[in-house]
Amino acid sequence: MSQVHQLYKLQQIDSEIQEKKKRLGEVLQLQKGNPVLIKARSVLDTAVANHQKWQTDQKDKNLELASLNDKRQKSEKRLYSGNVTNPKELSDLQGEIESLGRRVESLEEELLEVMLYLEEAEEEKKSAQTEVETLEASWADETVDLKQEQNELALRLHHLMQSRKAHLPTVHADALKQYTNIGAKKGGVAVSKVRVNKCLSCQITNSDQVVKNAKSGKIVNCAGCGRIIYVV
Ligand SMILES: [Zn+2]
User: Fold this and answer.
1) What pLDDT score does 104 carry?
2) How far is the CA of 98 from the centre of ligand 1 (A)?
3) How far apart are the CA of 9 and the centre of ligand 1, in A?
């Protein structure tokens, strides 16, 4: 088998090693976290905080309402006790009771509104919770799949490294040197297929003479990209 053919076989092994290593990197990265789940958790945090805010608001308003009603009751009790006889004081007391009544009324309206917001916040919280639970469940499944893919990739890489080691002695030192130098400059692809004179890497058409030399087993470089030509 010609050196070009051996280099082509080496290239096939190396390309697959490169590809599997890239995917392994992605698989490891993917296992670090799921951006969709992270986003859903942040939406849930916001919904919980919003719900809590309306709950606190409702509680505060209820306390205020109780205090206003208490005040009003006390004033009414005093007004009807018969102990207050001064007309000015009586009219002040009546004014105060009316004013308290108006405040109670408007506070009750506000409370109704708060209850609506609270209900809405409750719904949002529930749906955010469901979303997070669903995503967490599918993320758990996905993690299992990723772990399995990681193991398969590691195993395949191990075999490829062994194949490479077994194949290397068939490549001459000077050919390997050329292969390594070109590969370093050309993204790890030192050997390119050429079909009907056309380089499949750079699409340049090489001369018949170049292709003839390559076919005879010589190491010839593509006129366009400089890669070693392997005629299909
Ligand atoms: Zn080329």
Assistant:
1) 97
2) 94
3) 18
